Amino acid sequence: MDFEEPVTMDLRRRILVVGHGEVGEALVEQLEGEGFDVAATPDPLRVPEHTKSWKPDLVLVQESLPGRSGRQVVLSLRANGDVFKTPIVGVLNDVSVLHTLAWMRVGATDIWRFPFTRGVSSRARELIDECDRSQVQLGHMKTRVLAWCARAQLNGTVTMYMGTPFEGRATFVNGELHMAQLGSFTGERALAQLLELEDGPMRWDVGSSQPGVKAVPPAGYKIRVLVVEDEPTLRKMVTRKLESAGYVVEAVEDGEAALHLAPHKPWDVMVVDFDLPRLDGWGLLRALREDVVLREIAVAVLSAHEDAVETLKMARAGARAYLHKSGRAKELLDAVSLLATPRAKLWNALERRTDVEVQLRAVGPAWLLRTLAELDCAGRLELEDALGRYEVTVSQGHLIEAVAQTGSLRVTGHVALEAILVSRADGRFVFSPIEPPPTARWIYEQLDETCDLLRREEAAKLKSALSRPGSLVLNEELAELFARVATVDQLKVLDALRETPPDVEGLVAATGLPTADIEQSLAALLRRGILSPEQR
C-alpha cells in the first residue's frame, strides 16, 4: 500500500469508515497516519448513529458487511437528510464499470478498489475538496457518474438493451462524454435516461463504440409471431406483412385472447397494440412477466402515441420495442427481425454443432432447453450469474443432469432446473459425445413438470408474502450475493422487511414505492430464493 508524508491540516477532516477486517484496518491506519479524525464501525446498524452525531466530511463503505450489503448502507444514508450532501465512497474488490454504476444508483460519489493502488489520504482529501467546490455532483446520478468518469479517465462505451430497437449507448473518451443516444434523446439527457434503466441488460466495451447487433437470416429456424390487435384492418395488414417476410404468424383481437393462446405455442415475438379491449398492453405485459415461460417472449408494442418518455416506461415494464402505428411496414419488419435474432443465431449455431456463447436474458432458459432437445444436442451447458453457477448435461433429447451451486448450497434435479429457469446467467454450451443412461428422462418432460411446479410455487409464495410480509424469511448468504446486482427498489424492500411490517401498506410507507412496484420486487426476491415464506 502507498503511504504519503504527513501534512499539517488547519482543520481535521472527519472520516467515517464502515468496514471490518483487512479493508477496515487498512483504511483506518492510513487515514489516522495522515492526521484525519477517523471513526470506524463494522456494524451497519450503528452507521446512522455515527453520521447524525458526528457529522463526517466523508464516509467510506466496504462492500461486504455483517448482515447488510454496502449498497444498502449507502442507500439508507442517502435517505438521511443529515448526510445528503456528504460524499460517500464504496470500497470494492471489483471495480468494473457496470458494478460501479450499480453503486452510483444507490448514491455513491466515488468507488475505490482494494487493495489500494494510490494513497488513501490524498484521494480522500481530493474528493472532499472537490465536493466542497461543487455540491452539484452529490445530487443526480448523471452528475455523479460524469464526475467519476472524469476522475477515472474512462474510455469505452456502455450499451443497454443490446440487440433490440430500444438499444441505447453512451461513449466516453478520456473521461468525457463523447456521445449518447437513446431513442430521440441525445447527449447528457440520453445518458440520464440510460442510467435510470437499471433492470435492463447492460454491457461495457473498452475503447471506441462497438457496432450494434445486426439482424441475421433465420436460416432453418421458424420464427413464430403472435399479433395482438383489435382493429381488423390493421390486424390483417400486420399479419400479411409478417407472413410475406417468412414468419409463422397467428393473430388475436385482445389481450385476454393473447394470454389464453400464448402458453400453447413457443412464440418468439409478440406484436401488441397497447390500447386493447378486455386486457390492455400494461395488463398483458404484467401477466407475461409473471409467468416463468411467457416472460421470455420479446414484446413489440404498437401505439398511436409517439412519446419518448412513454417509450422508456414501456421498456421498464418489459417491452423490447415501441413502434408507432402510423410507421412504415419496414420499421415493423426490422424490429421483429432484430428481436428474433438472438434465438435465430443461437439455433443456427447449435444446428451446426458449434460450441456457442449463451445469454439467457436474450433467449430465455426454457426456450434454450427446448432447443437443445429439438436439435438432439449432446454436451454441457455451463452458466454463471451473481448468485451462482449452473450446469446442465443433455444428450439426444434427454436431460442427464442439472446442478446449481448458489452460495454454499448445491442442488440437483428439478430444484436445480428451477434455479436455472429463474436465473439471468451467461455462459456457454459445449458439445461432447455423451450417451444418455437408460434412466435419463426426456428434456421436454422434466421441463414441463418444473415449469408447472414453478408457476404454482411462485403464485402461492407471492400470495403469502403480500398477506404477511413481516413473516418472510431472509436468506442472508444469498441476500449478500444478490445485493451486488439488486435494483434500488429491491434493496429498499429488503431493508423495509427487516422491520417486519405487518402488511403491504407498511412496506409502502417504509419504502415510498407504489404497491405494484413492491409486488414486482417481492416476486423477484422470492423467485431467486432471497426470501421465502415462513414455514408453519
Automatic annotation (TrEMBL):
Gene3D superfamilies documented for this protein: 3.40.50.2300
Pfam families: Response_reg (PF00072)
Taxonomic placement: Bacteria, Pseudomonadati, Myxococcota, Myxococcia, Myxococcales
PTM annotation (4-aspartylphosphate): residues: 273
Name of the featured protein: Response regulatory domain-containing protein
Keywords: Phosphoprotein
Organism from which the protein derives: Archangium gephyra
Domain Response regulatory: from-to ranges: 13-129, 224-340
GO biological process: phosphorelay signal transduction system
Xref: PANTHER family: CHEY SUBFAMILY, STRESS RESPONSE REGULATOR PROTEIN 1
InterPro entries assigned to the protein according to its UniProt record, in alphabetical order: Bact_response_regulator, CheY-like_superfamily, Sig_transdc_resp-reg_receiver
Transferase among keywords: no
